[in-house]
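User: Let's play a game. I give you a shape written as tokens, and you guess the letters that built it. Ready? Here's round one.
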């Protein structure tokens, strides 16, 4: 079997917390993708989920210590041959042991011998997550290149709520698949950057039952929010009518319905954002009249519904932008008799005035509701690049790479402007804009 054809090897470490049962869902999703998954629980994890469950779901033997199968040297070999090590849940204790390089069981030995990407998904009570010891351990691991995901906020074990809940298993699996496809996809290069992303499709009601809408699932916008959080950004996700998607852990979440609601939410969040991404499919028209009761067949003749234009939110955001803000638009195009997909997209980039336009060819079997996406990225400076078919998180990573390029070049430009306007004796640290 060639390297490209072989099943990718994933080690799924399981820490000793109540969320260990959710590791079973991650395990199932990974094996369904065809990966060879080896589960390594800690001793404490086996007090929550039994060996038989992990062995049956993975089809592989399950061990916790280093003194079984000794001739095969598992404490070294499993880590060395893995394509990804994933830890679900990563407890405070496990994060501490990993950060300090302890090797007192098979999982921590594997973490020390692995040379592949490592993804740890923490779950613990809020006090433990916020404790200085845990914060420092997480910072140490991230500095070394380990992807430590942000936990979600919500119901914890017992009646209490707060930050520390395990991120949704589907979200963890998506990030794992991303790292398998592109090991360098989640650098911490958006630390300190404030991002707002819109996702989904707005709906314009005709009456309390019916609406004008579109087929956007919201998956691309959610993938953008999810990957930005993991790259260190402070993210607000403005979400309009998505299919049942897990809220990205660590993002501020704003739910909207109509174009006007999305417009208000985007303007509010964009005020102090460094990056604005309009991935939502916004309804271009809304009915002039909105009935307060359900329209009956007998209420009216089958006349065309009178429509009026909605505001162009992206164009408004561009007009209101702060000088250094990076703005990304999306274009879903089919091409028609007046031009192909890219010709329409180039004209749209000029019309909208954003920095970057992400272009998808849409139509039956393309983009909408699909798991994978492909397209092009057009920059305001005229450069264009193709985005190969891949997961929506993979496309999101390409988009963030381009955004990071914009942020860096703007900062270089600002520091030049600063140097030109700096007065003798003036201190560094303030940019002119
Ligand atoms: N957009 C917006 N407000 C609208 C319509 C679109 O902010 N009323 C944004 C979308 O979020 C997307 C970009 O503009 O980022 C392009 O959307 P698209 O529907 O492709 O373009 P339109 O401007 O609607 O042009 P057309 O439908 O004529 O192609």
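Assistant: Ready! My guess for every position:
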């Amino acid at each position: 079997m060639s390297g490209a054809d072989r099943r990718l090897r994933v080690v799924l470490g399981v820490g000793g917390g109540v969320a260990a049962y959710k590791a079973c869902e991650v395990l199932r999703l990974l094996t369904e993708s065809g990966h060879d998954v080896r589960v390594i629980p800690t001793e404490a994890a086996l007090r929550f989920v039994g060996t038989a469950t992990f062995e049956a779901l993975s089809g592989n033997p399950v061990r916790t210590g280093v003194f079984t199968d000794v001739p095969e040297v598992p404490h070294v070999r499993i880590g060395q041959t893995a394509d990804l090590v994933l830890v679900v849940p990563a407890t405070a204790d496990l994060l501490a042991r990993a950060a300090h390089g302890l090797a007192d069981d098979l999982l921590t030995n594997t973490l020390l011998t692995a040379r592949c990407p490592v993804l740890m998904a923490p779950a613990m009570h809020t006090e433990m997550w916020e404790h200085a010891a845990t914060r420092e351990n997480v910072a140490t691991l991230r500095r070394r290149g380990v992807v430590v995901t942000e936990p979600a906020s919500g119901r914890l074990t017992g009646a209490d709520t707060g930050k520390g809940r395990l991120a949704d298993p589907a979200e963890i699996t998506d990030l794992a698949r991303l790292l398998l496809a592109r090991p360098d996809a989640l650098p911490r290069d958006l630390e300190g950057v404030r991002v707002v992303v819109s996702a989904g499709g707005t709906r314009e009601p005709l009456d309390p039952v019916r609406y004008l809408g579109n087929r956007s699932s919201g998956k691309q916008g959610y993938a953008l929010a999810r990957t930005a959080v993991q790259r260190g950004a402070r993210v607000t996700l403005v979400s309009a009518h998505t299919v049942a998607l897990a809220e990205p852990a660590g993002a501020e979440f704003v739910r909207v319905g109509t174009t006007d609601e999305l417009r208000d939410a985007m303007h509010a969040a964009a005020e102090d954002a460094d990056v604005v991404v309009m991935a939502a499919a916004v309804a271009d028209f809304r009915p002039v009249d909105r009935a307060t009761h359900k329209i009956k067949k007998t209420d009216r003749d089958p006349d065309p519904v009178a429509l009026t234009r909605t505001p162009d939110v992206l164009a408004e955001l561009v007009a209101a932008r702060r000088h250094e803000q990076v703005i990304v638009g999306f274009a879903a195009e089919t091409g028609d008799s007046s031009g192909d997909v890219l010709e329409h997209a180039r004209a749209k980039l000029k019309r909208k005035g954003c920095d970057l336009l992400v272009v998808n060819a849409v139509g039956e079997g393309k983009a909408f509701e699909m798991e994978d996406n492909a397209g092009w990225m057009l920059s305001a400076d005229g450069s264009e690049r193709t985005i190969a078919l891949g997961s929506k998180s993979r496309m999101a990573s390409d988009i963030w790479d381009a955004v990071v390029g914009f942020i860096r070049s703007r900062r270089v430009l600002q520091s030049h402007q600063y140097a030109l306007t700096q007065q003798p004796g003036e201190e560094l640290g303030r940019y002119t804009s």
